Amino acid sequence: MKKTLASVEAVVDQIASDTFNPSVFKETGVFVMRNAIAPAVVQEWQAEWQAFYDAQLAESRAVNKANPVSLTEQLPPKLAVMYKEPAFAKVCKQIFGEHVALYNHRFVIKDKFSPNKVFLHQDSCYHLGNLNKCSLFVPLSEVNADNGGMTFYAGSHKLGVLGDAGEINPDSFDFEWPKITPELSPGDFVIMNSALWHESGPNVSGINRIMADTIVQPADDPTGKDLLCGEWQTEIFYSTANYIRFFANSRVLKLIKYEKERAAAAA
Ligand SMILES: O=C(O)CCC(=O)C(=O)O
Ligand SMILES: [Fe+2]
């Protein structure tokens, strides 16, 4: 029998509400905010998304080979600053304190170009700067298990960073976590600790699954890009772009070298 955490089991049925509950979030590492964004605001985002999708993405788009769901195209103006919506700062302040910054804002979508599952993983191992980060997943479409909605392993963030980056094998642990796959409607959003394990199934319904993924962190992190609220708490900043350049030698540089050698040997 695998171990379960009583403290997580005790609150997992309180994981979704119109009101954020910081003590539940601390235990579960994930929380579903219901009806958190005014319909007029969401409708504007949806209209901008639809115009953008029809004009620039529907025919063909540059799918990211390393992570197909992660949209590579530049977002139009309103979608690029969605993270400024005060409903997000209101929740983030209760986690990080009054000074909150943006780490990254992007879209993760499952349409005909990227319908496949996303394997079980945590995000922290892909991040730079400090590890105290959360994702806000903001649906602009209906989201459910049929169109590739995400599944969260409640409480798994308590294990912290697991030491490598890639697909987690849950069978290699003595612990078991409650799995939740929340159905989401536009106006809801999910907040997730970046160390939390998550995955998603394929889109089998054919209804496009459209979500923003905004990563937020305390404003003392030197990788911050913009403020959600409060003031900067750091004097130094650096760009996370092309982070491989920070290393004289590394795992990624070795992989690149081996891949070049392999290609040369095969030629
Ligand atoms: O879009 C999804 O279903 C998951 C995406 C994700 O977890 C990621 O890109 O890190
Ligand atoms: Fe992820």
From TrEMBL:
InterPro entries (alphabetical): Phytyl_CoA_dOase-like
Pfam family, one: PhyH
Keywords for this protein: Dioxygenase, Oxidoreductase
Superkingdom of origin organism: Bacteria
Cofactor annotation: Fe(2+)
SUPFAM superfamilies for the chain: Clavaminate synthase-like
Entry GO MF terms: dioxygenase activity
Membrane-crossing residue ranges in chain numbering: none
Stated name of the protein: Phytanoyl-CoA dioxygenase family protein
Organism: Paraburkholderia phenoliruptrix
